[in-house]
Amino acid sequence: MMNYLEIKKEILKKIEEYEKIIIVRHVRPDGDCIGSSLGLRDILRESFPNKKIYSFGKTKAEFLNFIGKEDEQKDSSIYKDALIIAVDTANCDRIDDDNYKLGKELIKIDHHINVSEYGDINYVREDYPAACCIIVDFYLTFKEKLKMPKSAALALYTGTVTDTGRFKYSGVSAEVMRLTAVLLDYDLDLEKIYANLYIKDKEVLSLQGEVYRKFKTTTNGVSYIYITDKMMKKHKLSYEEASALVNSLDSIKGSLIWIAFIDQQDSSIRVRLRSRFVSVIEVGQKFGGGGHPNACGATLKKKKEIKDLLQYADNVVKDYKSKNEGWI
Ligand SMILES: [Mn+2]
After folding, report:
1. Fewer CB atoms inside 10 Å of the end CB: C or N, the chain?
2. How far does the centroid of ligand 1 lie from the alpha carbon of residue 135, in Å?
């Protein structure tokens, strides 16, 4: 296995070699995947003005428009002879557009658990809490050759903030702070960034009130809420807004795991799992999903699986509490 520096050199070599580079990312985009896409795109555009460099993705996340926009994909022929770089995406089924297959070579750059080495080059840093950190580190490694414009710093800072819960989650190391400090050298308007990320519509807050009234807790401390289609319609919520509601349950004493079940269009149920102290990933994996130890997801085909999942998660908490002290 190559070490990180050698993989980074390989990637730069490919970038230098190709005339056309297309950055793709996962479905249901979050701050980190849009941030790392636009951050990498703008670094490459600034550094290689003669190359054609695009960032593509089908589904959009409007709340991130303030960090810039991905490019319009007019025709799939654009992929011909391109180097494709997939960011923040653990398995290629989740890439938000099958057209990436039309490219010539594929590079995977990701920070999730390395379940699938789908790229011709795979650069996976499970030690970083965000894909954006990988991009900043890549830029710093080749600072002599690469240029980072302010637009990239804004995108990368925003992605790091969202994937770390504003530097709260585990995985925020001294190195992550040093990488982030490089972005703050760009004199970013933090007040504006945080306003864009955290100011909520009244409708969302009123739904949050409903979440606080309706959530339940299992015997051993799994708090959960089921967000129905009806609730989303009543409160005029986008899927992203509904998904984010899982975070409303993050500060309940004794609830080491918290979960949101969200109705989807196709009658399946999206599960968002979060935890502190104890890892929740085995719950996600048991139900066909994955992600990080303290933040992962899964999809259930039937409503009655909710009960099984809660039972399983409840046992995880029970087991953890019986063997550990000092949890809150
Ligand atoms: Mn990410």
Report:
1. N
2. 12
Can you give the CATH number for the domain in which 239 is found?
3.10.310.30
- Cα–ligand 1 centroid distance for 132 (angstroms): 8
How do residues 139-169 score in pLDDT, each as one tens digit?
Answer: 999 999 999 999 999 999 999 999 999 999 8
Using the mean position of ligand 1's atoms as its centre, give its distance from the Cα of residue 47 in Å.
24
Expressed in angstroms and rounded, the spacing between residue 34 Cα and the centre of ligand 1 is: 9
Domain boundary residue, one of 146, 170, 197: 197
- On whether residue 76 sits in a domain, the answer given is yes
> What is the total count of domains within the chain?
2
Q: Decide if 221 contacts 256 (C-beta within 8 A).
A: yes
Residue 1, pLDDT above cutoff 80? no
Q: Give me ligand 1 centre to Cα 234, in Å.
A: 30
The pLDDT score that the predictor gives to residue 110 is 98
Q: Is residue 55 part of a domain?
A: yes
Domain containing residue 73: 4-197
What 228-232 contacts at long range (C-beta under 8 Å, 24+ apart), as own/partner pairs, is 228/263, 229/263, 231/207, 232/262, 232/263
Distance from residue 308's CA to the centre of ligand 1 (Å): 28
Residues 150 and 247 in one domain: no
How far is 227 from 242, CA to CA, in rounded Å? Answer: 7
User: Considering the domain boundaries, does residue 37 fall inside one?
Assistant: yes
Residue carrying the six token digits 């909520």: 200
Indicate whether 262 pLDDT > 70: yes
One domain, residues 33 and 179: yes
Ligand 1 midpoint to CA 88 (Å): 5
CA 95 / ligand 1 centre spacing (Å): 13
187 and 211 fall within a common domain: no
From the CA of 323, how far away is ligand 1's center (Å)?
31
Ligand 1 centre to CA of 46 (Å) is 24
Q: Do the domain assignments include residue 179? A: yes
Measured in Å, residue 285 CA sits from the centre of ligand 1 at 18
What pTM was estimated for this model as a whole? 0.86
Which bin fits 278, alpha (ψ -120 to 50), beta or left (φ > 0)? beta
